[in-house]
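User: Before I run my own analysis I want an independent prediction to cross-check against. Here's the chain; please return only the structure tokens and, at the end, one sentence I can use as a sanity check.
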Amino acid sequence: MRLPLSWLGEHVDHGLTPEALAERLTATGTLVEGMEQRGVRDTNGNLDAFRVGKVLQAEPHPNADRLRLCRVDVGDPDGPRQIVCGAPNVAAGQTVAVALPGAVLPGGLELGERTIRGVESYGMILSETEVELGAGSAGIMVLDDRHPAGARVGDLLPLADTVLELELTPNRPDCMGIAGLAREVSAITGAPLRPLDESDPAAEGEGRVEDYVSLTVEAPDLCTRYMGRVFTDVRVGPSPVWLRARLEAAGMRPISNVVDITNYVMLLTGQPLHAFDLDRLAGPAIVVRRAREGEPIVTLDGKERALDPSVLAICDAERPAVIAGVFGAEFAEVSDATTRVFLEAATFDGPATLAAELGLGLRTESSSRFEKGLPQELAARGMAIASRLLVELCGARMVPGTLDVCEPIPPRPRLRLRHSRVETILGMPVAPQESAAILRRLGCAVDEDADALEVEVPFERAGDLTREIDLIEEVGRVHGLQNVPAELPRFVGRGRRTPYQVLVSRLTRLACDLGLNEAITYHFVPEADLDRMQIPAGDPRRDVVRLANPLSEEMAVMRRTILPGLLRAAARNQAHQRPDGALFEVGRLYAPRPDGLADEREWLVGVLFGRQGGTGWRDAGRPADLYVATGITRALLRGAGVRDAAARPATAPYGHPVRQAELLSGGGRVAWAGEVHPLVLRAFDVKGPVAAFGLDLAATLDAVRDPSFVDLLSVPVSTRDLSLVVGDRTPAADLVATAREAGGDLVRDAAIADRYAGEQVGEGKVSLLLRLQIADPGRTLTDQEIDACVAAVVEALAARHAAERRG
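Assistant: Structure tokens:
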């Protein structure tokens, strides 16, 4: 929304500089995104050099065929000035705008007295283009004859203007008009608001409006109000300079006086209007109905569009003349030959308008207002102002009567605002009198009593202010949120995090302590990631949640795994000369459900690339591999309280065929770790080695056991190493599990301490060093008891895994 401050000043004299006003608007919720200076400079008395002039004579230049020698009265006591003008439309008797010597034009050009083809010229007769009031004007601008010679042009036209670029929130359609913004500025500055003139012009046309056109509303659910008036003897032509300047500053292109009036009133009030050439309407009739399937319409941009029954159409007796609230048809537009106009002011359903513009790919200034939902009362305001301007600027005669089909208007909300509640919510005291004054400046009717305010909301804000808390928000933002004290809130009770939140926080800190950097990647991903991850056809992981309206093919589905995003991050790091790194992310995965929703499960996933660990000459680190990934995974699980996780081979398609494992606790999988498949690395343009891991956070929380006391020092612990020869495909985790089971409570720990494969153990075999920690928390074991425990372990390993002792 563009806000010309000269136009705003006609409705509220706020007394602030543009910069101060922009700061105040932004602080109260209306974001000012930019500021544009238009026209001439308003400094050092520059505007005084732009005067109204009366052309007394306009004769041919003696030395140039295309120039005119003019005598212009600019109110000087020394008499008229001689000015050379090259505009083809200059003529005696005109009232014009003149720049005197010393005036500085837009762009910095300073005028002086000049000799043009041997004749002295003491000023310049201006066109709209030369002072940035319009574009493409071929001649001088002609002003209203009622303006006296010597008057300041800046008092009549916005020669120097500042335009604020505003970003409005969707709940404030009232601010999509200059009048609504003026009310907002009045509220935040306390400056008095000048009310709009909503009076109707005299109805001097012949007959009644019903004699000219009929009105039928067949879809009252989509059109809650439709008003129409007829004007005869309309003279279509260019708009006056002030009107064109207003539209240009607000970002709209002037077309003709009739169309410009509808746009001007829309920009002023926020109520879109539409003008029809009455003689081009069949019937003549207006029928508000749903479009028929495939019904065509050629819109004002010359394109043919096919409608459907979800679209509301404003039709004549034969065909659609307007896509309601969006765009008009070419055949019914106002042209230079138009003499009779039907003027529409209506209220259309917001969601239906939004669906129509999305379906047609057509968004306009009109639809951007209707889509937010406009009050029915606003149509009457827009109709009255536009009617008066049509009579004044187009010489039109308004036919008596108004067609007005209106659904019952909901009563204005009446809300109770408790004084005590204001301070409780805002955290600062606001005097009841100030609360009442703020709400009145916002257009509310307020009755006061000792404990509360009874507030009737204006129709412009009826869709926005519906609860007491909404009124408190208005009081707070206008009073000044910067006045809220910086204090911690007072809680009735003490808040606590859930066990799940504690777990996530603990694991996030621990991952950082282990040297990983936290990353955040997109939840929307390309579906092609499933192919890059080698997910086979028919795999349940290929079932994804698809977006109905994706921003692009690269963000078309919800992710089933976090790994692709981290691999892309790793590739980006490597492309920026960071060959080594470790990243992790805590995020959600999404699986489709039969009811159309998604199952969401949170994982902690990490990627290790390049060398891990030391970076100096004494410790160059080690390549990222299965063992690094498994070690970090076990460290995270122990930090979470899962100490009994057992590993077994895994078969994830994106993992290395033989260098991946899943960790189980309590019979369920809690984590995965392994090296990434080379084909996956190639698909994501990542250089190996790369390892990855992932923790299912919900499963990890389920596997957490209550901590128990472990005696570390009061009894001696005996260590026994068993050198075992087993098949090279025997999982080491199975050997550890068997040793724990066979040794019972005496085996406090079992782990693989070394590994050897070579000709001394034979092909297809491997030697593993199994280290046992043996102790009884209640007493000191004898040698015989320790030997018996070791023998039981060896016997079980031989029976279950064909393990042979070596040496």
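Sanity check: The chain has 19 helices and 40 strands.
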